[in-house]
Design goal:
Helices cover about 15% and strands about 35% of the residues. By secondary structure, the chain is of the alpha+beta class. The protein is globular.
């Protein structure tokens, strides 16, 4: 069991091959959540990342955090622009963590996710 491991986790990409997690994620509202934004220029492109973090221990989440110790859900939106061509692309993803709001603030979660790659 997760509780026996004495550690925390960060699932950095909830993908379509995890249909239960994808379905669960769609019930999480990110509209009024804490947010964070970063802007980087490297490798010939400008990349803006926006993060919205939902505290799953909130009663409005119907006990979702009780499943596998989930404490926070993170919605990530990446927008990349090639400097030379101006071509842009957008990508969205979702992450889950057992870290509580007290353990990891939005900027810390963004850094953990970014450093994962």
């Amino acid at each position: 069991m997760l509780e026996d491991c004495d550690g925390d986790y960060l699932v950095t990409a909830v993908k379509k091959n995890q249909p239960t997690m994808v379905d669960d994620r769609q019930h999480i509202l990110f509209a009024d959540c804490l947010g964070h934004e970063t802007l980087d220029k490297q490798d010939g492109r400008i990349e803006r990342r926006r993060y919205w973090i939902q505290d799953l221990s909130d009663l409005d989440c119907n006990g979702y955090a009780a499943l596998y110790g989930r404490q926070q859900a993170i919605r990530i939106e990446r927008e990349r622009q090639a400097v030379k061509t101006g071509e842009t692309s957008r990508e969205g993803s979702c992450a889950l963590t057992s870290l509580t709001v007290e353990q990891a603030k939005p900027a810390q979660l963004a850094a953990l996710i970014r450093n994962h790659w």
